[in-house]
Amino acid sequence: MEFAIAAHGLQKRFGDKLAVAGVDLIARPGEILGFLGQNGAGKTTTIRMLLGILTPDGGTVEVLGSRQPLTVAGRIGYLPEERGLYPAMTTRETIAFMGALRGLPLAEGRRRAEALLARHGLKAEIGAKIRTLSKGMAQKVQLLGSFVHGPDLIILDEPFSGLDPVNQQALERIIAGERARGATILFSTHIMSHAERLCDNLVIVGAGRTRFTGTVAEARAVLPAQVVLKTGHPLNGPLAGMPAASAQAADGTYRFALPEEGLEPILRHLLDSGASIREISVERPDLHDVFVAMVGDPDEEDGAHVGAPMAEVAP
Ligand SMILES: Nc1ncnc2c1ncn2[C@@H]1O[C@H](COP(=O)(O)OP(=O)(O)OP(=O)(O)O)[C@@H](O)[C@H]1O
């Protein structure tokens, strides 16, 4: 099997609204794929089409070698964006029940549930009812239940939301552990740091379309590195060949894109002109910067699009 997921030109319409207007998404077996986009970008709708919960209005989907994802549901694990468990069920029964829905015998599910709960810091809660758990604990139980049957493909919709930093870190370890077992993992998020640490590849969507496909390093290479220069006193005239350097902050800091020739010509010019260099450094853009440039700030409620050029990197 060449691809765990291969989706091309996916579209979904709700009434007048084209919620997904053209999403291409490839996940290779054994990789962690980050599915990034602002609120409302179309991630959940796309995920539901990948799972066969929604039928696409356009495009094609192939999941674990099948064009009918529901026929391979037993090999898929899914954490939906809406969390919901039965409050009166115990953690053990919840996980076993979720496994049973995907074809795992209940007795085996209970055994695995106990092992998973113990391994992931919930040993004392094995017999506890869901209603007695904190929100983060309940979310962890739902996550463990989503892969108790040992699926080949795990799809997690916003798995980090609602978790404190310690549990977010624990979740990162769980995801990495499932990948080490051989599973392919797709998770959606608008928190870039998780994607930056975990993902082999990224798909960034904006307004229902794929804007970028590639590795984290390829994404970061979309934006130029920035030179940050602090001088003891203002420079005399513009820095040679660096028009942007005239944009000087009040504290004597100059910022401009690192030129193709690198730092050496700038340094030579500065030294020749007797400038007093206090600090000079090169800042590489992080994934958050790239995301903002491509689709807007994920922290902004209105999801404003900043209109920067889009980049496409072939998978
Ligand atoms: N069942 C539905 N009926 C009508 N519109 C819908 C429906 N589901 C989603 N939409 C709309 O489709 C667009 C994409 O929604 P979707 O939930 O896929 O985005 P998302 O990227 O998952 O966002 P979030 O990060 O906020 O969950 C939104 O404008 C949303 O309002």
TrEMBL record:
Residues of the ABC transporter domain: 5-232
PROSITE patterns, per database record: ABC_TRANSPORTER_1, ABC_TRANSPORTER_2
Entry's Gene Ontology molecular function annotations: ATP binding; ATP hydrolysis activity
* A Pfam family annotated for this UniProt entry: ABC_tran
Coiled-coil stretches noted in the UniProt entry, renumbered to this chain: none
| Keyword match Ribosomal protein | no
Question: Which top-level group of life is the source organism from?
Answer: Bacteria
InterPro entries named in the record? AAA+_ATPase, ABC_transporter-like_ATP-bd, ABC_transporter-like_CS, ABC_transporter_ATP-binding, P-loop_NTPase
Q: Which UniProt keywords apply?
A: ATP-binding, Nodulation, Nucleotide-binding, Transport
* Statement: the UniProt record of this protein carries the keyword Nucleotide-binding: yes
Q: Which PANTHER family match?
A: ABC TRANSPORTER ATP-BINDING PROTEIN (PTHR42711), ABC TRANSPORTER ATP-BINDING PROTEIN NATA (PTHR42711:SF5)
Q: What is this protein called?
A: ABC transporter, ATP-binding protein
UniProt organism field: Pacificimonas flava
